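Working notes for the structural subgroup meeting. M.R. asked for a predicted model of this chain before we commit to crystallization trials. I am recording the input and output together here so anyone reviewing the notebook later can reproduce the run.

Input as submitted:
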Amino acid sequence: MQNCLHYDLILLDSGYAFNNKNGSAVDIFIREADDWRIAEKADDAVGHGTAVMSIIVNGHNCGKYAVFKAFTSTTQSNVDNVLSALRFINEKVSCKYIQMSFGVRGFNRELETICRELYEKGIILIAALDNCGAMSYPASHDFVVGVSGDPFLKTKNDFAVSDSGVVDIYAKSARQIVGKNANGYVVEQGNSFAASYVSLALLESGKSFATKESAMRFFSPGYSTFSPQEKSMLLGTKAALFPLNKEMYSLVNYSEFLAIQLIAIYDIKYSSNLRRTLLSFDGRNEYVVKNIEKCDWVAFDTLILGHMRELSQLLGRDIKRELLEKCISNRKNAYCFDGNLYGEFSEKFRKEGLILECADEYASLYAEGRLYQFKTPILCVLGTNKKQGKFTLQMQIRSVLQQNNVRVGVLGTEPNALLLGCDEVLPLGYDSALAGHFGSKITEAANYAMHKIDVLERDIIITGGQSGFLPHITFNSGHINASQIPFLYGIMPDGIILSFSEGDSSEYLRKSIRAIEGLISTKVFLLALYAFHTEKDYVIDVSKRLLTDKEIASQRKRIKKDLGLEIVVSGDIRDNDLLFKKIIEFYCEPTETEQ
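Returned structure, recorded in token form:
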């Protein structure tokens, strides 16, 4: 009969050795083939489950408990056993609480699904976070009570509740006596034992809890679930952009990816861009750059505003403020690449029923250093310098892969990423909120953004760094893009495509590759040439000339001879087949050790 067995608490652990000092009822379930049965006698070769359950049975001796022998090691979880046990409980057992003394570091859809089904039945799930400091499941799921130890909590009744969205509650976890066996007292430490104190407190309360929130409010009446604010997609159908800078070219080149139709491009009258005709890469969309002073406010419903700090300084006027005010008076939504004036104008837009979106607003978790581990293969584009079309290359890779039925996830580090339909955006370049930080803040922000794509279960995730990875010169701290290193540690890419310019020597490229591959376990498997020779580089205007086919052929020959790598030309659709071939070779074909 379904659900004929009922327990106050079920523990998934390494077993139980019957050494409790009272008469609490504890059933031990062992797996036989694809089924579970109550063992007539069982031991716990590891001892972990016995120690964890001893805190429960010695503290609350009037309950009925069960231990499912789901794994036989304290260092490695048997996910198959865990899933089997949870399915058995879901079909044939009822209980108030399930406590899980394990953490799976990679996201597992089956584990999430079965845990959610159990939770929706009214079972409170309590899980220990990874002892080594990684993000782990099921503790990291928002419907599970995630428990971590705190060495400063000294007694079983000491708890610290958190609304960070990662750890829900801290409990005693330092070295402690948790039981006694034939060899004497058992001394243990770790998050599993902290989880037992949380379970024990809930059992001793004598109350029934239908949701995680109600259980957590037993510890802290003011508890509320953390829910990071996600960026919304813009309302409207037609957009104009201003000014025409390097981030805007990707919107033009790959306008077929835009979530909103681009109909007009504006710049200042002093720019050499006026009256230029621009085409998207696929040739379907054509634009003529117009004067912002003669803006046709009726033609669009959303204005995309790029970086304007230096432009405003040159003009001697706050042009971004002027345009935001005109958006309000003309009842237009706005999408800003940076947070300048966002705080001042967001409420004004809201009161008028308009949307002001800022690419630089990102969801942040206080993760206490815990990092998600990824299952999806990750490809990262890095570069040797600024203005190399790195984001354009990422869009090219995305387009090529999608044309070959590859499910692609994208984390964009440029503020235009959301407009181009990327899954997540985390601006790290010019005027971004994170650009001035170094270390854990960037690592955790990038890691969390990648995690949100990883759970979508795509075939591959594409992302890219900013500016130059290895500085050419170090005369000033501005020459060093220090944010690249913590960003890499946050995303941990499997493969790298390195973008370079014609002036980069083979020795410099070799050093860059060694530096990248020496930092993390990755491989630079392809180079991408930014096929322009820069004649001059001013603040507004950049005069460039496209490399000839002969010059490009010379670069291919040099790189192949000196570094043994092939190159593709960024943005050149003639190299799409080669680009696809090299990616598939790297990510899909077995290595010599795998054959």
